[in-house]
Amino acid sequence: MSLDVAALRASAHPIRLRMLSLLTGAAMSATELAQELDITHANASYHLRVLAAAGIVEAAGEENVRGGVVKRYRHPTRTAADECAGQAVGTDPEGQLLVWQAIAHELIRRAQDQAVDTERPSPSALCDAELWVDPEVWKRAVRLAGDAALLLHENAQPPRTDGTLHVNATMALFEMTTKEPKR
């Protein structure tokens, strides 16, 4: 199995997708991830090992805590173009489907957890469209989405930091396959 396929399969799990989101804002230990995700330490450690083995997260240091060593991991921010790709779906059809299914599941979970404040609504955006556009417009849209993703990732803070908002950003931009119309 190629590294890209291994990375796709490793990231195609709802818990690991959530971990990647959290590890973008701060280096965290398995214990911290377990607390934030409300899962067991063993479960958090397992999923971290899968992500690390696939090369998706990297060690971000160790510290001594109560006579033991705590290892921290992070999900490194990349360039705007790479970040826009996020969990890039590659060309493996099975891997693509796994990633899309995991993202859809995670988006539904986040939407169900969404807090709605009718007194003070927060800004939001939603776009779901299948369009035909000029190639230059498409390139610009992909660059802008990449810039937005990079802005958010570079400014992400550790969970529950005072003065921060808990937000969701899910972007999926891809070219569609053009098929001949049925007659």
UniProtKB/TrEMBL annotation:
Molecular function GO labels: DNA binding; DNA-binding transcription factor activity
This protein's UniProt keywords: DNA-binding, Transcription, Transcription regulation
Record flagged with keyword RNA-binding: no
Keyword Cytoplasm: no
Pfam families in UniProt: HTH_20 (PF12840)
Organism superkingdom: Bacteria
Domain HTH arsR-type: 6-90
InterPro entries associated with the record: ArsR-like_HTH, HTH_ArsR_DNA-bd_dom, HTH_MetalResp_TranReg, WH-like_DNA-bd_sf, WH_DNA-bd_sf
UniProt xrefs under PANTHER family: TRANSCRIPTIONAL REGULATOR, ARSR FAMILY, TRANSCRIPTIONAL REPRESSOR SDPR
Protein name, per record: DNA-binding transcriptional ArsR family regulator
Species name: Actinopolymorpha pittospori
